[in-house]
UniProtKB/TrEMBL annotation, chain A:
Keywords, ordered alphabetically: Amino-acid transport, Cell membrane, Membrane, Transmembrane, Transmembrane helix, Transport
Subcellular location: Cell membrane
Organism of derivation: Geodermatophilus maliterrae
Membrane-spanning ranges: 6-27, 34-51, 57-78, 98-117, 137-163, 192-214, 226-251, 258-282
Superkingdom of source: Bacteria
Membership in a protein family: Belongs to the binding-protein-dependent transport system permease family. LivHM subfamily.
Name recorded for this polypeptide: Branched-chain amino acid ABC transporter permease
TrEMBL record, chain B:
One Pfam family per UniProt: BPD_transp_2
Subcellular location: Cell membrane
Name of the protein: Branched-chain amino acid ABC transporter permease
Organism of derivation: Geodermatophilus maliterrae
Ranges that cross the membrane: 6-25, 32-52, 58-81, 88-106, 118-142, 204-237, 249-271
Domain of life (superkingdom): Bacteria
UniProt keyword terms in alphabetical order: Cell membrane, Membrane, Transmembrane, Transmembrane helix
Keyword Transmembrane: yes
Signal peptide: none
Topology in membrane: Multi-pass membrane protein
Principal place of residence: membrane
Amino acid sequence: MAQDVLNALTLGSLYLLFALGMSLAWGTIGILNFAHGSIFVFAAFTAHLLVQEVPLPLPAMLAVGVLVGAVLSLLVQVLAFEPIQRRATDHRKAEMQILVGGIGIAIIPLAVAQYLTRSVPFGYSGSTFRVTTWDWGFVRVGNVQLVTLVAAFGLAAVIGWWLRAARPGLALRAIGVDAEVASMMGVDRRRLALLTMAVAGGLAGLAGVLLTYYLGSIAPETGDAFLLKAFAAIILGGVGSIAGVVLGAMVLAGIETLVLVTTSGTWAPAIAFGVIFLMLLVRPNGLLGRQEVRRT
Amino acid sequence: MNAWYFSHLVLIQSTFISFLLALSIQVPLRAGVFSFAGVGSYAIGAYTAAILTIRAQLAPVLAIGAGMLIAAAAGYLLALLVARLSGLYLGMATISFALFLGVLATNGGELTGGATGLYGAISTLTTTHVVVVTVVVVLLLAGSERGAYGRRVDAVREDPHLAVSLGIDVTRVRRRVFVVSGALGAAAGGMNSLLRTTVSPETVGFHLVVTALTMIIVGGALSWAGAAIGAVIFTWLPSVLQVVGDWQLVVYGVIVAAAAVWVPNGLLGLAQDGWHRLRTRRRRIPAGGAAAPVTTVAADPEQELAALGGPAAEARP
């Protein structure tokens, strides 16, 4: 039982690291990045390529993941999403174009990774970091699990605090409420958008490297599954709410672990879809999302 | 010609089926409804047709027709359920509906054949039937894009609030669009499983959503012709791209991304734009005199339409 709870928390932390940046970008600068899953896999894959040449310790691997994720995310923002937002005539059209552009871009790094690995799962056998587990009597804890838990909850707390207390965080939230009024108040939308996308990509890269250590190896196709689960977590908690993403990721991971433990597991993929659908029907703003104010 | 036809028969068939699937997403999109329910209907149609053909040996017309009826009814119910959603939220809800059906098929036990799917759905359906169905569908859709009804749908897409104030029943248009999309998707799915004689849960995944969407975006979302262009391009692209070998998918991704960023109205929008420019230039040349510019501006019906928010409005730079 305690083991299942710990495993659910670890899985939830990985979902959280992945979904945190996505939710932030969607809730503030209005960008729903479908290339997020691809960035996540490609960051983990770059770390794999590097570790085959040079034996690296865990912190260096994490840094590589964060860096590659952030750079890729920035590239997507500058090359695709900025031109779309600049050109689109209205908000709804821009949203859809961003979605489709993201889907298109997502194919590219995934195809490169699939080509180089021949779709065989890759791992970090060359790393100097050794995955171990400690037996505490009632539960077995892995060192990767501890790092994941600390990273996920720590980073969520830092980002939540920054959004609430720091001035740039306030500015970013202002963009989420009304982008035009925010820029009239002197908020540099472009710089904050780039920052948000870099943070989102970095978090995705971090999640990718940690997931690869946790599972031993991952296939390039893992990104798509994570993308849909992240949606479920975000919608469950409420778009743009940091506490909501934490709650959503943990609840989703909890239900999935419960179903995996108690049934044969063939229904597990349906949980994310069911959660998305039901939440959108019952409470589209999520458990902790703010009510949308309409004045038209 | 004949040898070429037979060696490319599978590609020709899948062009028409992809075209119908793309239409099942294009029809809602034209009314401003961002719904992927057509992909779910594809699954409903594929499984219904296969089950009825294998178990009851029904004629293909009845097997596919039954799938279309079920999917249309499911579309209507779905429209009632998701009535208050719009935009990305509606897209996500319908994507999860479609993918949920895939998981349902995996867990369907004997009825759906589980993870391996169903085999041996042999019927008398031929390519000619598929072509006839497609032509009928295109004629009906082309009719709905013209005249008063076409303008009404355009109004619902461009400004639903304005459409309501003009006396258009927006809710009814949206529901109708869900029903039509369900029937189209089921027709595509049913014909596909009868032509291939098999169906498995893998046929309805996230990749099918991506394929259908990319066809419409690259071709153009505002008319059936855009879906046709997209279906032809993306069905035949893999055989053309054999030159680049293993980098096929990379080229594919670059094309989709570039189309989404630079050609938001698709190739059809690009063509309409070019045609419009060509025509206005030709009209100006014979007029010649000083009064010409005034008359051309006033007599350009497309510009008037654009001012009213017609289909060509966004195609303008």
